[in-house]
Every structure is written in structure tokens, then in C-alpha cells.
Write a structure and sequence with these properties.
This protein is of the alpha/beta class. The protein has ten helices and seven strands.
Length: about 300
């Protein structure tokens, strides 16, 4: 849908919401006299004023330009600002043009209904789209190791409408027991790292993403050992520096390499620099039976 058409549709929807909120607010406060002929003209004027000021503040706070599939606390704060400023301005208009008579109780009730209806209209669409419109049943069921910032970033991107990867997150694991039985983006945290084999089996997991970029060598090895007890494909995030600079997305997930378990950057042997001193010489390598010594001999 074009942005212009989307804005027009939202403006019409919001206007209907405001009319409904004012009518319901008036009925709650004056239910015993809720007949059309008894509704004061000031109520009609107030409704028109609220509609006008709503659209004004919605433009100021860019309410119509929000992408609601990513809606979170920031979008709720924007709705709160628009609704509150609109009602406050309507109250001032009442005082100025209605001989200092203010329908305080009705304005408060209208503010509450207005807030609920406006926020609900946005989030109902998001829930409907996520549950009934999106088709991702053919994607691979994915377990995310780590319910922290990196795990949340991966889950958000995999759940986004623009996600073109083959992965669909269905569960988290995290060693922080305070997060167990909670949900992030409607994805449950099912247990700890040591529970990975059982969770993979019970939930038909096909893919595991390790989303803890700050892991030390021993910690990563523990996770890898648990993942290797399953038949799931294992990938991990790159370095934490890339996360901090915003260079990492779902497309940057990589396979677990031997170098990841070193706990340091791999050392490259400069053959050219030492060839003059060892070529043709008899060399004694201590510890040649180990991984480093055997690699030097090779």
C-alpha cells in the first residue's frame, strides 16, 4: 500500500475511533439522559475539535509514519503523547469557548477510551498479521541459545516480515533461571544450555543459533558439546565488535569453526620469514605429538 493511501486510511480510522470514544464517554457519564436531543452542542464541537487536533498532533509526532509490525514501547509513548495533547487542547478550547465550563469527568473517561481504542487498533492488526497472514510453516524450526540482547535481535529479525531466511525461531535457552518460563516476542525461554538435547528432541528443532557473542572459550565449548548431541545444524553470531557497530544481521550467521574455540585470534605462521633459517636444516620440535606441534611439522 502506498504511503499516501495508508495515511488516508489511518486518518479515517482514527476519526471513527474518536467519534466512538466521545460517544461512549458521554454515555458512561450521562447514561440516564443519552438521547440525541439532550446532547449539548458543546459535545459536537468538542468531537470536531478532538478530530482536528488529533490529526495535527499525529502529524507532529509522526504517528502515521510508524511501522506497526515493529511496534514497541516507543510507539506506545507516541500514542500517549498524541492522545494526551489532543484531550488537553480540547479542554482548553472548552474553557475558552464555553463560558469556562469544563466537562472534566467526560474528558477523563474519553481520554481512557480514546487511548485504548487507538492503541488497540494498531496492535490488533499486528496480532492478526502475525497469526493469520504470515506463512512460515515451511521454515526450519530454530532454537536460539541466549535470551539477551543478541538473542532478542536475532529473534526480532527472524520474526520480521522482511525476513528472507529459512529460519523460524520457536524457543530460547538461557542459563539465567530468572528468564525461564518467560517469553520474548512470543517465544518461550524453555531451559538452560544443558537442556538443549531434550528441547531439540521435544520441539523438533532443526537449527540452533548461538546468540552470545561474548562467550569465552570454555563456555562456547560447553554449548557446542551439547549441540553436538543433537542432529540440528549449528550456527553462531560473529564477534561482539560487529554487533556493537551494527554490522551484524541474520544474514551474517556463520558456521562454528575450530578457530572459534581457541579463545583468541588464530596465529598465522610466516613461512617466508623463517624459511632462510630452517630450510635444509635438521629441526627438533618439542611436543610434536600434540595439535600445535603436529601442525608445525606438517
Amino acid at each position: 500500500m502506498l504511503v499516501k493511501n495508508r495515511i488516508i486510511l489511518l486518518m479515517i480510522l482514527d476519526s471513527l475511533i474518536i467519534v466512538a470514544a466521545v460517544a461512549l464517554g458521554y454515555w458512561i457519564i450521562h447514561s440516564h439522559v443519552f438521547v440525541a436531543s439532550y446532547v449539548p452542542n458543546v459535545i459536537y464541537m468538542m468531537t470536531v475539535a478532538i478530530v482536528i487536533f488529533h490529526h495535527l498532533y499525529a502529524m507532529i509526532f509522526k504517528l502515521y509514519y510508524k511501522v506497526w509490525e515493529y511496534a514497541s514501547v516507543g510507539e506506545l509513548i507516541t500514542i500517549f503523547k498524541v492522545v494526551t495533547f489532543t484531550i488537553a487542547t480540547a479542554a482548553i478550547m472548552q474553557l475558552l469557548f464555553n463560558d469556562l465550563i469544563l466537562y472534566k469527568r467526560m474528558l477523563i473517561v474519553t481520554w481512557m477510551i480514546y487511548m485504548i481504542f487507538l492503541g488497540g487498533s494498531r496492535f490488533i492488526w499486528r496480532v492478526f498479521r502475525d497469526r493469520y497472514i504470515r506463512t512460515d510453516e515451511n521454515k526450519k524450526r530454530t532454537l536460539i541459545v541466549g535470551a539477551g540482547n543478541a538473542g532478542a535481535m536475532i529473534a526480532r529479525q527472524l520474526n520480521s516480515e522482511q525476513n528472507l531466511s529459512e529460519l523460524r525461531p520457536v524457543a530460547f535457552v538461557d542459563d539465567n533461571e530468572q528468564k525461564h518460563h518467560l517469553q520474548m516476542f512470543n517465544i518461550p525461554v524453555l531451559g538452560k544450555v544443558e537442556d538443549i538435547p531434550e528441547i531439540v528432541h521435544e520441539h523438533d528443532i532443526q537449527h540452533i543459533v548461538i546468540a552470545i557473542p561474548s562467550l569465552k572459550n570454555g563456555q562456547l565449548q560447553k554449548i557446542i558439546d551439547k549441540c553436538n548431541e543433537t542432529e540440528a545444524t549449528v550456527k553462531m553470531l560473529p564477534r561482539i565488535e560487529d554487533l556493537m557497530t551494527g554490522k551484524v544481521s541474520v544474514s551474517h550467521l556463520k558456521n562454528v569453526e575450530v578457530e572459534d574455540l581457541l579463545g583468541r585470534e588464530p596465529v598465522e605462521l610466516d613461512i617466508d620469514a623463517i624459511s632462510d633459517s630452517i630450510t635444509g636444516e635438521v629441526i627438533l620440535v618439542t611436543g610434536a605429538g600434540g595439535s600445535i606441534g603436529s601442525e608445525l611439522c606438517r
